[in-house]
Amino acid sequence: MKPLQLTLRAFGPYAGETTIDFERFGGAGLYLITGDTGAGKTTLFDALSFALYGEGSGAFRKPEMLRSKYASPEQKTEVLLRFEDKGAVYEVRRTPSYLRPAKRGKGEAQQLAEAELRLPDGSVKTKVKEVNETLEDILGLNREQFLQTAMISQGEFLKLLLASTEERQKIFRKIFHTERFAGLQDFLKAESNAYEREYELLEQKRRNYLERLQLEGEAEALRQAVLRRERPAEELLSLLPASLSALELEKNEATALREAKNEEISELSAAIVRAEASEQRARLHREKEAELLRGRAALTEQREALARIRREIEEKTARWEELPAYRALLPKYEEFARTSAARAAQEVRVKEGEKALRRAAESLHAAEELLNKSRAESRELADAGEALARCEAKASELKERSLLLSSVQRKIKDYADCFHEGKQAQGVFLKEREAYEQAELAYGKAYRLFLAGQAGLLAEELEAGSPCPVCGSTEHPKPAEKPRETPSEAELKQLEEARKHCQERAERAAKQHSALKERLSQQKQQLSEQAARLFPETDFRELDRSAKAEQECLKRATAENEALLTQCGKREVRRRTLSEALPGIEKAAAERLSEQGAANEVLAAARQSLEGLVAAEAAERKQLPAEDIEVLRERIRLLESEQRSAREAEQSLAEKTAAAEQALSRAEGELKALAAAEGKEESSVTAAELKEKKLAFEAARAALSERTEVLGARLSNNRETLERLGTLEKERSVLLQRLQAAKSLADTASGQLSGQDKIMLETYVQLDYFERMLLRANIRLMEMTEGRYELVRSKEAENKRSQSGLSLDVVDHYSGSERSVKSLSGGESFQASLALALGLSDTVQEEAGGIRLDAMFIDEGFGTLSEGALRAALNTLLELAAGQRLVGVISHVPELKEKIERQIRIRKQADGGSSAEIILP
Known about the structure:
Layout: E1 2-11, E2 14-21, E3 29-35, H1 41-53, E4 78-85, E5 88-95, E6 98-101, E7 108-111, E8 114-118, E9 124-125, H2 128-139, H3 143-149, E10 151-153, H4 154-162, H5 165-176, H6 179-212, H7 217-227, H8 233-320, H9 323-380, H10 384-452, H11 454-460, H12 489-531, H13 543-622, H14 629-677, H15 687-750, H16 761-784, E11 789-793, E12 808-812, E13 817-820, H17 826-847, E14 855-859, H18 867-880, E15 886-890, H19 894-899, E16 903-908, E17 914-919
Parallel strand pairs: 3-15, 3-16, 10-14, 14-15
Antiparallel strand pairs: 1-2, 1-4, 4-5, 5-8, 6-7, 8-9, 11-12, 12-13, 16-17
Helix pairs in contact: 4-17, 5-16, 6-15, 7-8, 8-14, 8-15, 9-13, 9-14, 10-12, 10-13, 16-17
């Protein structure tokens, strides 16, 4: 990659547009970037890096920090780079993300990052990610590799020179991407740890199995010794088969005893059943005899109760025969009740009619009152429309005058602003004119001194034997002396430029002041013409006060008219509403009058009907007994209930007596059957005695069963545990072999083998890059130090715990000693750092597929070199720039300014920002 042209706009300290045309250097060779500290030399590197990769060249210069603080708000920040790669020309333009003034409204908006890449075939890519990927493919280097090969910073490589093995590992990992080997180290370590954890789990599992064994005697003592790690587990495993055989024999003997007990218990159970059956029959015989006695007594009671209820029925029959006559009176009472209800309902209707008549009278009165009031109000609002029209005309007049006043006030403010701006411009003009006069005086005085000292200036250049340019003599016995105050030609030129600059500033200030005076005169004329319409007799100087007074008057008049307008509007609305409502109000009054007449008619008819119902109710009352219908109904209900209860009681007692006779007959038959079944010979042993004996046998059987189960569980547990231990031993053997192999690999890759160098796998891979880098670096270092110094790998680690392999020493061939690179002086450290940086650059290019960079940039560091070391370093750079390579060096060292004639000179501007200029011999 070779830059052809770089253009910066509002980038870093470059406020305007700055263009660096690298093609003026001829496409190859060495050039110097020089200028004041902070002027923006390194910013050129930032711009190149940003154009190619979207980021600056330093870790601390983020894209959002690249916006120029000297640029105007509307100036867009961007970098345009045209470069050549493998004979093809590309053009890339980028804009960083930064805050800019919002295009709509006030405040700020975020300018998004932009990128555009124009390819040799004319196609254009505009997406940031797409541009980044395409440029990386074209260059063949990512940003980190580019910064390590094309942009060499002395400070960064001094860190690489003095870094420890661990720090240098991190640097090489980032440059050469060796993290995959570190990943392999971690993988092998993790796999070894996994096998170790798995082996520990098997050990714990084995111990758990041993704890589960249930042994006795000598075997149990051996198990405890194994758990205490006093005896080997294999000894216990060999003893387990015999222990299991003895346990199985003991279990079989317990099972046989339990079966014998089962047979004895079965025989006792049969005897208990027979004894309980005999005892049950005797108990039933006694119970049946008692039940027969109770049945006979209950039957006698039932018969006596039945005779009593039948006598009561005979006594009450005469009263029950009166029920038909009572029932015949009920319809007459119900007819009288209906007549009474109709009379009561009619009384309610009469009362409602009276209420309706009163309401109709009240409604009629209210309607007539509303009608009279509305007619009076309508007459009072007859002039509301005319009053409203007058108020609206007044409002329009006030609004027109207010708009005219606002326009006059704006022009008064514009005139005042222009007047103050003119005063300020007059002050600037006077100040610039005074500065110009001072510069003119200083230049005139210096010019006169310069002319007076010409003889002394010519005498300074005279040499013995050379002719004088004035008289031609080759001898100069008494050359003229230059006065001390005589300025140099450069100083005179500087004063002349200052005078010209002050003259230009004074002329600009005069033009600006004249323009403001003209604008002020025009604004005064326009203001006077417009104000005359409001204040025809007012002096111009009193316009502002008159306008404020008029504003207050208009404000009061407008408020008063708005209040009156609101009142007139309400009166006009009310007038229209009444005009529309009056016909309806008159119609409603007529309807209320009609409703009152109808209510009178309804009430008269209701009163006439009520009189007829009252007469009918009195006639029916004379035909009935004195008692009420409810009393009659209660008497009928009580007689019917009494009759029904007596009949039901008689029927219930008759049924119970029959049932008792049947139950007594059944009990007598069952008693005869039990008596016939008795008489057989029974056993002399009771069921309770037999049950007690059975309980004793069952307890003995339970003990035997428990013993059998315990022995069986122990036998099953020990057999299962022995099988699992056998399987576990096979797994342990296989896993132990894997663990040993994995640990050996992990220790080898991590540099942890006992008695070996502590070199990790990643470091071993990095050693190849390191050796190649040192080989190339030493070629240049030996040239720069005239064969004195050579960089070599340290043979020992920095301490016993540190990794080794990437530590760096220096061999001093003058003294024959080998020592740490940290012992080098400042200038020697720079030489070693530069050589190391160039060696790394060559190695990275080779690693990136043999990519050749036709441009390199080296930043600072030459100020620490002696004259000889500087000359050697410069020769190295000249060799580096040989052929087609263009090499740029940033430095402010005076010797380099003299020796490198092709330069990019950076200057700070007086008004802020910087400018760049290409200097060619």
